[in-house]
Design a protein that fits this description.
Elements lengths: L1 H33 L8 E10 L6 E13 L2 E17 L2 E12 L11 E16 L2 E16 L6 E14 L9 E12 L6 E13 L4 E14 L2 E3 L2 E3 L2 E15 L16
Keywords: Signal
Protein name: DUF2490 domain-containing protein
Pfam families: DUF2490
Length: 270
Amino acid sequence: MIVLRFVFVNRFQFTLCLIAFLSAFSLSQTFAQTSLTPTTPWGTWLIGTIQLPANEKKWGGFAEIQARSNGMFRQYFYNELKAGVSYDVDRNFSLMVAGGHYATYDYQDLSAGPLNTEKRLWEQLIINQYLSRIKFEHRYRVEQRWFTFRDGTTPYRNRIRYRLNAFVPINNRTITDKTVFLSVYDEIFLNPIGPTFERNRFYAGIGYQLDKQWIVQLGVVNQTNYNPATFESGVFTPQMASGKSNVVVGLTYRLKRKGNGLEKLPSQPD
């Protein structure tokens, strides 16, 4: 028993160190990328989500509204409305089909209407890993995107996304009622026709699950977009990166449903 306990403790400590290292590395890379451009003001993301957890029939879903501001709780310029249907193959594997409507505005002239709108459809696979107190979520997503710009153009784009999200409950061994937890994730956005690396998103935050229905989260997300290197008219322009940090406030309400007593990770659908 002593040997088993020693192995378990060391495995737990090793995993914690690995998460800390990966988080620190990702954060340093994010700020290094962002430093290529002038400092931008902090923005705000407000996210409200309603979830229908899967039960013994394995079907679930969600609906979400999101608003973003260019400044701290001011200069609103962007919104998202989206919903989806999920199917839990088992506790560790979940499939989803979802879609949404996205609109971007000029915050200085909202009355002029959106600069562009987007209709998006995506297919998604989530793989969960429960390692004692540490929980990992691997999310793979393929998106189809239809745009309508103010000038009348209607381009179509595909995108691939991968997100690794780690959760660590603080005052309980599982994320259940009255649990404080930490959440850290890094997500990459890939363009299948190139340039391949399009965006990186890093998030770190703290959350509180009040009960089986209500969850609140507060964190910071740094999003860095990449423009490809170009060579036109004999002039080479290197790859450029522009980044911005945002305060994220998220509120989730889970609908009551029988037979969903298993631990559910409080991941954000965004």
